[in-house]
Amino acid sequence: MATREFIVRMNDTTTSPNFSLNNLTGVGRLDLACRAVSSALFLSHSIRKNSKIYVNLNGPPSPPVTILFDAKNLKRVYPDERNIASHIRIALKKFDKKEIFTETEPGIFIAKKSFEELIKEKNKKADIYYLSKDGKDIRKFKFNLEKDLCFILGDHKGIPKKTEKFLDELGIKKISVGEIEYLASQVITIVHYELDRRLASR
Ligand SMILES: C[S@@+](CC[C@H](N)C(=O)[O-])C[C@H]1O[C@@H](n2cnc3c(N)ncnc32)[C@H](O)[C@@H]1O
């Protein structure tokens, strides 16, 4: 089965492991990132083995850092925010500052990699889309369901204008799930739902 990948660009989320699980909102909205991971990977009582999510952190003290959760090999990761945040904390603690992804726990990888570098790498392998309220309606979109699909999302502040320009210059198409502005985690659920329905009706 083709892979579904998500990339969430977090503007201000901490790149230090020194945070409390009781204060995820106060470290650049890590709670949002954790909810996105949960929506990307989990179903009721099971995990989407063909899903991956990259959380790109751009907060202090040493951005950028990208953490990958690959559902295929995850162990002891659960859908709740605190559990996911605890694995992000372990990844940041074990981080060796390398530019290539290093596995810190089964299915969890970390790298000193910017959003732009990640997108350029992905663009060679997968069909990439930028989720934006102003994009083309997802229901009018024909996806190649045999290919790996990769979806980019912003956090509560959205994707900065200059980063949007970078995506546009790469020819990355914008798609919308409707005129309402949803949370990134909700958009991920909608994308999965739309793709699940298309697969089911083939
Ligand atoms: C809470 S929204 C960001 C709101 C922010 N004020 C902005 O202007 O982008 C988080 C992310 O979810 C995605 N998103 C939200 N609503 C969407 C929609 N209707 N269609 C597609 N993507 C959407 C976008 O990627 C957005 O960056």
From TrEMBL:
Residues annotated for S-adenosyl-L-methionine binding in this entry: 131, 154
GO BP, sorted A to Z: tRNA methylation
Localisation: Cytoplasm
Entry keyword annotation includes Nucleotide-binding: no
Pfam families: Methyltrn_RNA_2 (PF04013)
Source organism superkingdom: Archaea
Enzyme Commission code(s) on record: 2.1.1.257
Gene Ontology molecular function, alphabetical: S-adenosylmethionine-dependent methyltransferase activity; tRNA methyltransferase activity
InterPro entries: Alpha/beta_knot_MTases (IPR029028), TrmY (IPR007158), tRNA_m1G_MTases_N (IPR029026)
Protein name: tRNA (pseudouridine(54)-N(1))-methyltransferase
Source organism per UniProt: Methanothermus fervidus (strain ATCC 43054 / DSM 2088 / JCM 10308 / V24 S)
Lineage, uppermost ranks: Archaea, Methanobacteriati, Methanobacteriota, Methanomada group, Methanobacteria
